[in-house]
Thioredoxin family protein
Amino acid sequence: MTTQTAETDRVVSLGDVDLETVVEDSSVALVEFYTEWCGTCKRMKPVLEALAEDTDATILTIDIESNLETAIEFGAQRTPTFVLFIDGQPVKQLRGGQNEQTLRDLITRYRD
């Protein structure tokens, strides 16, 4: 599966095969597991775009309906589910809609 970039080119939409490669290449990666029909996920889009623009974290999205194995592997049973990776390893999971400051603080706390 090829990597597809989202509308902004800053938030990257991935498939099962790509996730491991990208998070291993990023010191800090925040992944949102979402579905197309999820209203909260749609509202998170500008938040993720803002984080991608002015933090050093790699911001990724994965559609759980198209990438069920990966969603199961990371416990993404509800959408949205956020998983923070540090040096390729998952370190924190948040479920449900989050505000921008919460995600910024999460990235900052684990980046340092």
